[in-house]
UniProtKB/TrEMBL annotation:
Pfam families: Hexapep, SATase_N. One of its GO terms (cellular component) is cytoplasm. Its EC number is 2.3.1.30. This is Serine acetyltransferase. It comes from Alloyangia mangrovi. Belongs to the transferase hexapeptide repeat family. It is an enzyme of class 2 (transferase). It comes from the Bacteria. Keywords: Acyltransferase, Amino-acid biosynthesis, Repeat, Transferase. Pathway: Amino-acid biosynthesis; L-cysteine biosynthesis; L-cysteine from L-serine: step 1/2. GO terms for molecular function: serine O-acetyltransferase activity.
Length: 272
């Protein structure tokens, strides 16, 4: 057993840490033992645990947990990047969210993380041409998590969605890597236009609570959008924008605003 665990830790340190933390939870809080076992300790890999968790959350009278789990298992088996991105999301949440003290918390408790993983499976279905099934995932994720991300939206890795309530991300939106998004953010369109109509968010961007980014506009790498802002025009890299409509109010303040999570409208120059 010790050799097996050492091998797992070497090959998949994120999953090994989740398993270790799960065992600690069971020891400290026996009443959660059944839930933690069936959600984490029963599974040999993080892929299987993710499939179980998503299917458990999204199942309803129209679609059974077993069917959804088979779909998720197929997605993770066919596209290994899904679970790699999930691992990056867990690490991002742990590093950026002061309320996250263990790796297992996003997997078990955080609806922002769970909603993003559900969308990743829906996006896989979308790319497979299984559009109606992907819409089912979107519908259930919206109902269960209060997060509405279109299955066609492209979401990078290392994503942290804090609190996650009332997040909306449109069909042609693109979210880069290492992006942090707070609650009540909308990445939407400006009307009834078709085709490419949603924002393109660069890498390392921090989007404050309640911000609305509307239209087919680019938000440059490592920029910051202040809470409550309405962004209607392109945001250059390494800048901070604020207001309604949003205007440039200064530099981003650091090289990695999405990681520093500093939302004060002060700071130093942002280097390239």
């Amino acid at each position: 057993m010790a050799k097996t665990r050492a091998k797992i830790a070497e090959l998949d340190p994120v999953w090994a840490r989740i398993v270790r933390e799960a065992e600690e939870v069971v020891a400290a809080e026996p009443l959660l033992g059944g839930s933690v076992h069936i959600s984490i300790l029963h599974h040999p890999t993080i892929e299987r645990a993710l499939a179980y968790r998503i299917s458990l959350k999204l199942a309803n009278g129209e679609m059974s947990e077993q069917i959804l789990r088979e779909i998720c298992d197929e997605a993770y088996s066919s596209d290994p990047s899904l679970a790699l991105k999930a691992r990056a999301d867990i690490q991002a949440t742990f590093e950026r969210d002061p309320a996250c003290h263990r790796y297992l918390q996003p997997l078990l408790y955080f609806k922002g993380f769970q909603a993003v993983q559900s969308q990743r499976v829906a996006h896989w279905l979308w790319n497979q041409g299984r559009r109606d099934l992907s819409y089912f995932f979107q519908m259930r994720s919206s109902e269960v998590f209060g997060v509405d991300i279109h299955p066609a939206a492209k979401i990078g890795k290392g994503i942290m969605i804090d609190h996650a309530h009332s997040i909306v991300i449109g069909e042609t939106a693109v979210v880069g890597d290492d992006v942090s998004i707070l609650h009540s953010v909308t990445l939407g369109g400006t009307g009834k236009e078709d085709e490419d109509r949603h924002p393109k968010i660069g890498n390392g961007v921090l989007i404050g609570a309640g911000a609305k980014v509307l239209g087919n506009i680019k938000v440059g790498d490592r920029s910051r959008i202040a809470a409550g802002s309405v962004v209607l025009a392109e945001v250059p890299p390494c800048k901070t924008v604020a207001g309604v409509p949003a205007k440039i109010v200064g530099e981003a303040g650091c090289d990695q605003p999405s990681r520093s999570m500093d939302q004060k409208l002060t700071g130093c120059n942002c280097s390239d």
